[in-house]
Each structure stands twice: as C-alpha cells, then as structure tokens.
Amino acid sequence: MNSVSSPFITRRKFLFAAASIAASVPIRPALALATGEHRIRVAPGQARLTGPDGPRTPVWAYDGTVPGPTLRLRQGRPARIIVENGLGEDTTVHWHGIRLPNAMDGVPGLTQPPIRPGENFVYEFTPPDAGTFWYHPHADSLVQLGRGLAGALIVEEAEPVAVDRELLWLLQDWRLTKDGQIAAGFGNMMDAAMSGRVGNVVTVNGAPPADLTVKAGERVRLRLANASLARIMALRFEGHRPVIVAIDGQPCDPHEPEGGRLVLAPAMRIDVVLDMQGDPGKRYAVIDEFYDGLAYSLTALAYDAGAPLRDHPLDAPLRLPANPLPAPDLAKAERHEIVLQGGMMGGGKLAGVGGMMSMAMPGMNGAAAWAINGMSMTGDGHAGMAPQFTLERGATCRLTMRNETAWWHPMHVHGFSLSVLSRNGSPVPHRQWQDTVLLAPKDTIECAFVADNPGDWMLHCHVADHRMAGLMTVFRVT
Ligand code: C2O
Ligand code: CU
Ligand code: CU
C-alpha cells in the first residue's frame, strides 16, 4: 500500500483541476545555459506555479527562475561554477550524482564551509559521466529545496544521440496554501516520521503541466528528474511504450519499465526514448499513479493533425554510449550493511527511536525519527560526523541496504554510482547503475561500487524530512 500522511492531500484535486484549465499553455522548456563558466545567484524570487493567472508565490530561486537554469556541461571538460549567496541564510550547492572531488560535493561542515549570505563559492570539477543530473542546496535543505531551489544539470555525450528532439521535465511538488503561498510547517513530526512533506501541486519545469504537442512518428528523448521533497511518482504514458535508456544519468540496457510504469522517487532521474506511435489529432494522458487511490493525469501528449514524420519508428540504436565507471570486483568485495530503522508504525507509535543515539543539534529541525544502524544523524551534514564505515581507496564495497521500516526510502549515495545487484534476493533484470535506490517497505537491496574517490561521503534518504530526522550517515574513503 502506498499511502501519504499529508493532511493537505485532499486539496490536491482542487488544485489539479485549477491547473488543467490552463491546458492550452505548452509545457515550458527549461531555460538552458551554454557550457563553460557559469555564475549562479541564489536569492528570493517569485514564481507562478499554478499558471499565468494564478497568484505569485514567493520562492527561493537560482538566477530568478524556478527551477534554476539548466546547466549544460560537456563530458570530460572542466567546469567552473560561481555560486553567489543572496539569501539571508547559509547555503551550498550539491551536484547530485556527479562523481567529483570531495571538496566540490557541497555538504556544509563536511566538505566545505557553508556559503554565508553575501559570499561566493567557486565549484570546479570535470564531469566524467554524460547523463541527466541535478543540483540543489545541502544546507537547510528541507526548506531551501521546498522553496524551489533545484535545477537540472545535463552532461552531454561527446556525440549527439539520434533522436528528433530532446525534452526535459524537471518535476517539483509543492505544498501550497489556497492563496498560493508555500505552506508553513516544514519539518513537523508528522511529515518527518511518515511519508515526508508530500505537497498538493506538481509542476513541470516550474509551471502547471499542460499538453505537450508532438508529431506522429517522431522520436523524443525525454529526461525526467524528480526534484520533489517527498513525492514518489509512477508515470504511465497511455498508448505509448517508453524505453528506459538511462537511470540516474547512467546508461542501461534499453528496456521497457515493469508494468509500463516509470517509478521516480525524489532525486531519481530516468531518460526514456519515446517513439510517438499515436494517431495524429489524438490526445494521450500521462498519468501518475503511485499513491493508491490518488492517481491523477499529470499531462498529455497532444498529437498535431499533420501527417506522420515517418512511417516506421526510427531505425537507430537506443543504447547510449557507456560511461567510464569502474567495474566492481565482487570476488574481493568488502561487505557492509546499512539498516534503516524508525518511523511511525501502526497505532501512531514511533518505532524504536527511544533507544537510539541522537546527534540532533540544538536549533536544527526537531528530533530523530529514524536511524541507520541504531544511530541518528540529523540535520544537513556538519563537522564531526563519525563515518559509519571506512573503505580503502580502490576497494570494492558490497553494500546491503535493509529497510526495516514501514515506509519507502530513496537512498542516495554521494560521489559514486552503485551497481545494483539484487532486490530481495533476486538479481535485478537489467544491468543498472544508480545513485539513488528506492527501497519499498521491508526491501533489501544489494549493490556494489569501487571506492575510487577519497573523502567523506554522505549516504542518506532523499525524502528531505527523513534525512533531517535521522536517515543519514557518512562513510569514508581513505
Ligand atoms: Cu541530492 Cu545529499 O543529495
Ligand atoms: Cu547527492
Ligand atoms: Cu526515507
């Protein structure tokens, strides 16, 4: 059963209905910045999250837009990004999924000092992998991400991929009041100990989703990124058969998703290739059906009436060029286990948190509701977080993640991509690398990676409330 705890969930219908009135507004393409040196200013701004006639919502924005500008970098080419903090509080930027030097990872206290109001920080790294990534703050991140700070980061393949068009949908979930303001109550215990802050308005590239106009016969590469705090999505494309070509930026064997649903937990990305095989003039819904009884139509593919672009689907290979990921040596692997504990159980009881050792910092969001191996690190990352385990550089780590809780957790590891080996004892059907692995209640997942990148790295749940309330740890590569 996929349930949500949000008391606001009943209002979703109303807001989605309001959003669909604007159905003639095309999905806004995400703003793009060209490759090279970039400058990004973080500051308060305003957005129209429910459409051009809706209320203005005060947000926090990268370069004044929600989501922030899409950064386009080149694989293997150095990038330099200057981040200016125009907020009234500390921030940092984390380049989610990029394998980069530890000092560029953006975790305040752990990998860099926070960027104080009015100050800058220069991020420099060379992305080794092509793919779909994203960036977001790692300071006060429940509030900062929840107020809109997120953007896509695309690392382009050396050779362009053979498609007619490339699209990006950066998905965000907002909890808005009736007058379009971001609802207060970040970090309340109910969200923290249950499904996290699931909202009532979903945007695509910062605007209410509206029809996407397509042409029969065209081939589209669609990059999907879920930048929500907590909402898990399961997208179904009516009348279409999307083929997954990359997960979390990393190319995989092209395959159709199980049950035709693309499951995107917070922080996950999926690249699909869509051959537009529908009929000219027809409209096909894209449905998010993750939560039981709360399915809604996110958007639709609207075919123009013109003749098909081609008679047969494009006859070009779907496989993306491989990224230079080091192959785990499973025979010599060092085993480590991460057990996820806590959260609310039936009857409104917190599971076992009483006996946990809490490192809650005064003034940070609330108390611990979760733990990893009996220990709760709360907040956003700070100095003195003792590593859960230490790996020697170059070693293969075989990591078991075991979810003892009654809730879903997208577990994310910084600095590495994990080769996912098995789920609940069965090998996963397609070779896949992920930086964010979704664990259903009681799931056990085994993965492996080569510890080739020294530093202190975070491993946490990407449901922001869960991370802040204890589902976070650190490991070290010497
Ligand atoms: Cu998107 Cu700590 O990560
Ligand atoms: Cu990350
Ligand atoms: Cu979680």
Q: Could you walk me through the main structural features you see in this protein, from its secondary elements to its overall organization?
A:
It is a single chain. Strands 21, 23, 26, 28, 29, 30 and 32 form a 7-stranded mixed sheet that branches. Strands 11-10-13-18-15-16 form a 6-stranded mixed sheet. The two termini are 42 Å apart. It is mainly β and 478 residues long. Strand 28 (418-423) and strand 29 form a beta hairpin. 5% of the residues lie in helices and 39% in strands. Residues 5-24 and 354-365 have low confidence and may be disordered. The protein contains 4 helices and 34 strands. Residues 94, 96, 136, 138, 267, 412, 414, 458, 460, 462 line the site of CU-O-CU linkage.
Instruction: Compute the CA-based radius of gyration.
Output: 21 Å
Mean pLDDT: 90
Any idea what the shape is?
Answer: globular
Helical/strand content category: mainly beta
Question: What are its keywords?
Answer:
478 residues; seven-stranded mixed sheet; mainly beta; single chain; binds copper (II) ion; binds CU-O-CU linkage; 4 helices
Helices and strands, with pairings:
Blueprint: H1 12-20, E1 32-33, E2 37-47, E3 57-62, E4 68-74, E5 79-85, E6 94-96, E7 120-125, E8 131-136, H2 141-146, E9 151-156, E10 165-174, H3 189-193, E11 201-204, E12 212-214, E13 219-226, E14 233-237, E15 243-247, E16 250-255, E17 262-264, E18 269-275, E19 283-288, E20 296-303, E21 334-342, E22 357-358, E23 370-372, E24 375-376, E25 389-391, E26 396-403, E27 409-413, E28 418-423, E29 426-427, E30 433-434, E31 436-439, E32 444-450, E33 455-461, H4 464-468, E34 472-477
Parallel strand pairs: 1-4, 2-5, 4-9, 10-13, 12-20, 21-26, 22-24, 25-34
Antiparallel strand pairs: 2-3, 5-7, 6-8, 8-9, 10-11, 13-18, 14-17, 14-19, 15-16, 15-18, 19-20, 21-23, 26-32, 27-31, 27-33, 28-29, 28-30, 28-32, 33-34
The structure holds CU-O-CU linkage and copper (II) ion (2 copies).
CU-O-CU linkage binds at residues 94, 96, 136, 138, 267, 412, 414, 458, 460, 462.
